[in-house]
Specification:
With about 325 residues, the chain is an alpha/beta fold. The chain has eight helices and 14 strands. The chain has two domains: about 170 residues, Rossmann fold; about 140 residues, Rossmann fold, CATH 3.40.50.
């Protein structure tokens, strides 16, 4: 009897409803149609999930970011469970944005470690591996009791900024914790490094205290993993402009853009904000200086390499 191997099984791509456009773009890059799925609500709001094609023995990839509302996470868990119970050979959760990741430790008494709980739920639902993008903290990979391929959107952004031929670039870390990311951007773009000394007075409230580094007369780039209310980013832009920076660019992988982020950014002397399409940016939150870059080519390559059991490390460059 011939031995069955996973690489001989057919790839199957599923999508939840959180970011259907990204899933369709990934499917186009893979020349692979999206599997038909029924997603609907019962009268009381409960989610009903049904996979409308045969998944037995297939290598299944489920694309679903878990940004609010919480139904996005539930959809992902139910799709994983449905695929597993339908005898899929392997189920990979492709999570372009991993929500509830900011609470990754007990930094005060009696708080939940939501990031660990979310990781446990993905494992319990039956996922065999996770393909993620720019986790809020890199150690979140260790929260999953299964293999994790953690990708970075940096190659997408650096390719975008190389085309701009920025003048005497300095990459500015938005805080001390972002210095490693900023150093990576500076290395790839042949720039120097500066760091913003930031004090966070409470959740979603930050105050710029000082800028460490020379920015006068130079183009600045502020990279971050996410932009939520825009307080940190807008304050950083104002501080750099006061110090004589030339043009100021910002980039963030995950564009949450919660109120009043759009207004803050529009009121700042920002040249351009580049974000990825890891989560949907609704039209009412888009503005003229916002540039949305696609991570679909990156994710489709990662899915293709994983399906054929090849290394994905080349995608980190």
């Amino acid at each position: 009897m011939a031995e069955y191997s996973l690489t001989s099984s057919q790839l199957l791509l599923l999508s939840g409803s959180a970011n259907r456009a990204l899933s369709e773009e990934i499917a186009e890059h893979l020349s692979q149609p999206l599997c038909r799925v029924t997603l609907r609500r019962f009268a009381d709001g409960e989610i009903f999930v049904k996979i409308d094609e045969n998944v037995r023995g297939r290598d299944v990839y489920i694309v679903q970011p878990t940004n609010p509302p919480a139904e996005n996470l539930l959809e992902l868990l139910l799709l994983i469970d449905a695929a597993k119970r339908a005898s899929a050979a392997r189920v990979t959760a492709v999570i372009p944005y991993f929500g509830y990741a900011r609470q990754d430790r007990k930094d005060q008494p009696r708080v939940a470690i939501s990031a660990k709980l979310m990781a446990n739920m993905v494992s319990t639902a039956g996922a065999d591996r996770v393909l993620g993008m720019d986790f809020h903290q890199h150690q979140l990979q260790g929260f999953f009791d299964l293999p994790v391929d953690h990708l970075y959107a940096a190659p997408v952004f650096t390719s975008h900024y190389r085309q701009k031929k920025l003048h005497d670039l300095v990459v500015v870390a938005p805080d001390v914790g972002g210095a490693k990311m900023a150093r990576g951007f500076a290395k790839r773009l042949n720039g120097t490094l500066a760091i913003i000394d930031k004090r966070r007075t409470s959740a979603n409230v930050a105050e710029v205290v000082n800028v460490v580094g020379d920015v006068e007369g130079r183009d600045c780039l502020i990279p971050d993993d996410m932009i939520d209310t825009g307080g940190t980013m807008s304050q950083a832009v104002h501080a750099l402009k006061r110090l004589g920076a030339r043009n100021i660019y910002c980039c963030a992988t995950h564009a949450l853009l919660s109120d009043p982020a759009v207004q803050r950014l529009q009121d700042s002397p920002l040249k351009e904000l580049a974000v990825s399409n890891s989560i949907v940016v609704p039209p009412e939150r888009q503005f003229d200086r916002l540039k949305i870059l696609s991570i679909a080519p990156l994710l489709s390559k990662a899915i293709g390499y994983t399906h054929s059991d090849q290394s994905v490390s080349s995608l980190f460059d």
